[in-house]
């Protein structure tokens, strides 16, 4: 800045602002306002601290002493504090960001002269490992991440305003990195992490109520369904625990705090995050996502010798398939569970290394697996008139070391909309198209011969196919028939 020549400045201590209980990571002046006479600098200062709060300071008009005008932030919870805060350009909103990648947003209500929390963007702060759409009508999407959380995103539907997507629930906050998930039905899901257990979760009543309110869905229709009956209100995480414990309305919960306030737990060393039933018409803030949107854990499924790596559920929601990391064939089996009783229905053998992806056909009659051993195996479901003594799925076709076309790890697979073809994607930069073996003419061995190939130029780590054929999509029958 040019002052027109040499100048001398004298600095003196004006005031010490004391109010935070932990390190202060950010201080910001409120932006200047433009008036008829030029810029007017409001005397307000915003400080953000690791004590999970931000304080807005201003000098008292009579004494000139700096005082705390308002304090906002988290109360309780299991997060670290704020690493920074700032004003909006007009000074009518403030935002903070924390260690776990979350934003905390407050807007100034000029009528009530208060600062109100408002919905803001949120999401994973670690690599997303898997995601799945609501299997019934695609109203939401769920994802799991190496940040050890499961997050549910859905549209916020408002009359006369544009629909936008927000995170509306965090069903699982875990102690292990999450690797995979499968939705059994609209209000039930299974997840796998770096542990030997598959965990099953059911949506609580409070989530269904808030989901319908935010997304514009008829709550009465949802509650009338058998799948939405006799559910707990929500879930909480016991101190030092990994399982989400169901909370029912008749249980002795802490007193319901005032609106927007989160009740802390008296044990500061090992706090338990208590659930409080909150009815929302807008997406929840970070504080509510952490405390009030967990899904109760209903089942733990055992049987694997190493960390869970892949999950899938058939379209009918009757069979859950899981696989774990494996360096030997004895651990590379795919375990099948009955989703009604959650009992094991058998183990599918066929691979010698980790099964990286499992895909059921749209009809549920076929199950396809691909592996680090560079092969795929196709299984067929038993006929309806078969006895229960027969395996639920049996091997129908497979490639081996001699017939394998992929030269590197196969990472993903998918079925065409009509279940006549399937696709495999591998690290060898190829996506191969295969015709279902039973559709070839008798006498021809076509198991090890793909009918099409796409060279993607880079390692192909994921593949999927639209569940219906697009009306403007030209289907090249010559390629698909292998001519």
Automatic annotation (TrEMBL):
The protein's superkingdom reads: Eukaryota
Report the Pfam families cross-referenced here: WD40
Task: Please give the pathway this protein is involved in.
Answer: tRNA modification; 5-methoxycarbonylmethyl-2-thiouridine-tRNA biosynthesis
Keyword Cytoplasm attached: yes
Q: Where are the WD repeats?
A: 348-389, 403-434
GO biological process terms on file: tRNA wobble uridine modification
Q: Does the keyword Repeat apply?
A: yes
The main location class comes to cytoplasm
Any one annotated GO CC term: elongator holoenzyme complex
Q: Which UniProt keywords apply?
A: Cytoplasm, Nucleus, Repeat, tRNA processing, WD repeat
| Location within or outside the cell | Cytoplasm; Nucleus
InterPro entries, alphabetized: Elp2, WD40/YVTN_repeat-like_dom_sf, WD40_repeat_dom_sf, WD40_rpt
Which family is it part of? Belongs to the WD repeat ELP2 family.
> Know the name of this protein?
Elongator complex protein 2
Source organism of this protein record? Mizuhopecten yessoensis (Japanese scallop)
Q: What is the lineage of its organism?
A: Eukaryota, Metazoa, Spiralia, Lophotrochozoa, Mollusca
């Amino acid at each position: 800045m040019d002052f027109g020549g040499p100048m001398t400045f004298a600095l003196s201590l004006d005031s010490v602002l004391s109010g935070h209980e932990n390190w202060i990571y950010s201080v910001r002046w409120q932006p200047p306002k433009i008036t008829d006479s030029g810029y007017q600098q409001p005397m307000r200062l915003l400080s953000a601290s690791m004590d999970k709060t931000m304080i807005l300071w201003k000098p008292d008009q009579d004494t000139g002493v700096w005082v705390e005008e308002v304090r906002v932030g988290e109360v309780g919870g299991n997060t670290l504090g704020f690493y920074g805060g700032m004003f909006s350009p007009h000074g009518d909103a403030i935002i903070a960001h924390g260690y776990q990648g979350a934003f905390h947003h407050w807007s100034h209500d000029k009528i009530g002269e208060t600062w109100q929390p408002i919905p803001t963007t949120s999401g994973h702060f670690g690599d997303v490992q898997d995601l799945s759409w609501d299997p019934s009508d695609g109203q939401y999407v769920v994802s799991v991440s190496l940040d050890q959380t499961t997050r549910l995103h859905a549209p916020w539907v408002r009359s006369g305003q544009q629909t936008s997507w927000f995170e509306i629930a965090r069903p699982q906050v875990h102690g292990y990195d999450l690797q995979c998930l499968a939705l059994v039905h609209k209000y039930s899901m299974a997840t796998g992490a770096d542990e030997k257990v598959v965990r099953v979760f059911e949506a609580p009543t409070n989530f269904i109520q808030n989901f319908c309110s935010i997304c514009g869905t008829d709550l009465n229709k949802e509650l009338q369904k058998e799948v939405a009956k006799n559910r707990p209100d929500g879930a909480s995480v016991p101190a030092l625990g990994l399982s989400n414990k169901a909370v029912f309305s008749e249980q002795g919960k802490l007193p319901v705090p005032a609106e927007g306030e989160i009740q802390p737990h008296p044990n500061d060393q090992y706090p338990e995050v208590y659930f409080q039933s909150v009815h929302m018409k807008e997406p929840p803030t970070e504080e509510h996502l952490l405390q009030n949107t967990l899904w109760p854990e209903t089942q733990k499924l055992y049987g694997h010798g190493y960390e869970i790596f892949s999950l899938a559920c058939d379209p009918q929601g009757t069979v859950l398939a899981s696989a774990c990391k494996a360096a030997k064939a004895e651990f590379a089996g795919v375990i099948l569970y009955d989703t009604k009783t959650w009992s094991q229905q058998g183990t599918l053998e066929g691979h010698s290394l980790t099964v990286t992806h499992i895909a059921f056909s749209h009809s549920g009659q076929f199950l396809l697996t691909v592996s680090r051993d560079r092969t795929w195996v196709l299984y067929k479901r038993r006929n309806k008139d078969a006895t229960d003594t027969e395996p639920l799925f049996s091997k129908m076709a497979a490639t081996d070391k001699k017939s394998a076309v992929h030269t590197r790890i196969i990472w993903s697979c998918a079925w065409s909309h009509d279940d006549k073809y399937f696709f495999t994607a591998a690290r060898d930069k190829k996506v191969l198209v295969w015709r279902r073996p039973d559709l070839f003419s008798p006498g021809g061995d076509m198991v090890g011969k793909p009918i099409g190939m796409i060279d993607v130029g880079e390692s192909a780590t994921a593949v999927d196919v639209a569940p219906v054929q697009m009306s403007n999509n030209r289907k090249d029958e010559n390629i698909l028939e292998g001519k």
